[in-house]
Amino acid sequence: MSTRRNLLRKAGLAGVGTVSGAALLPSPPDATDPSGTVEAAEPPAEAGDWVDDPITDEDETPIGRYHYEPTLDGYRATAPFNVVVLPAAGGESGLERIMSVLVDEGWVRNPEEYTRYAWDRTTEEYVRQEATAAQTYYGINGRRHVRCWSFEGVVSMQAHEDTPARPTHGVTSYLRGRETMERIFADEGWRVSPRAIDLRNETEPDHDGLATVIAEEP
Fold first, then answer.
1. Is residue 87 part of a domain?
2. Helices in the chain by DSSP H: which ranges?
3. pTM for this one?
4. Residue 92: which residues within 8 A CB-CB, separation 6 or more?
5. Above 90 in pLDDT, residue 106?
6. Which domain holds residue 112?
7. Which terminus of the chain is more solvent-facing, meaning fewer CB atoms within 10 Å of its CB: N or C?
8. Quick one: which of 134, 192, 142 has its CA closest to 159?
9. Calpha distance 16→207 (Å, rounded)
């Protein structure tokens, strides 16, 4: 813990906030339609320890609460995790399985994006994003976009909708990103438990601090 406190230092969570006016921007025209609700399933047994009480410390569980960017003082939180995915296989195989679902949906991997990091409690290090995908490579007109990390067989996903790439890139909605993941994976037969884990990472413009759990059915 002391190592991480030194890395974070005064950077804290000050970087998490609102993109001015972003909530008023339209969705990208080719966005996966997240309208409607998915059939909510009970969280899987392996998530049982995470659904009863809020998670407020990234050293308590394999689940991330935020991803970060490096600064001169350490690391600064930039966006909240809002989806937890439990693929049948762990590690790189699990990430590839998740990415394959998005590629089948027409998404592209490794799009133009900022590099972000997440905290790995087992190595006590910040780890570079391990798998990313978006609806389009550049997001000129906006897009849905995800970043993923796999720690201890559990994938923390940050899902959001981007503003148009120019003049300044930002986030217009975390909610639409989360709902898009719910719909895509539910349509593929994965078990979806919306808003099941309380990460206490509420962030403007529209993230309520809750993460959806998505599990690959055995």
1. yes
2. 2-8, 48-51, 91-104, 175-187
3. 0.85
4. 130, 150
5. yes
6. 2-12+41-215
7. C
8. 134
9. 11
In a domain, 195, yes or no: yes
CA-based max dimension of the chain: 46
How confident is the model over 119-162, as pLDDT tens digits?
Answer: 999 999 999 999 999 999 999 999 999 999 999 999 999 999 99
Residue 1 corresponds to which tokens in the numbers above? Answer: 């813990």
Domain membership flag for residue 33? no
Question: Is residue 77 included in any domain, yes or no?
Answer: yes
Which two structure tokens, joined as six digits, stand for 25? Answer: 């921007």
Q: Are 126 and 110 in contact (CB under 8 A)?
A: no
Sequence-distant contacts of 32-39: CB under 8 A, at least 24 apart: 32/105, 32/135, 32/144, 32/180, 32/183, 32/184, 33/183, 34/176, 34/179, 34/180, 34/182, 34/183, 36/183, 37/194, 38/182, 38/183, 38/186, 38/192, 38/194, 39/186, 39/192
Determine the Cα angle at 150 with ends 144 and 152, to 5°: 150
| CA 160 vs CA 11, 24, 109, 195: distances in Å | 23, 15, 15, 15
Count of domains for the chain = 1
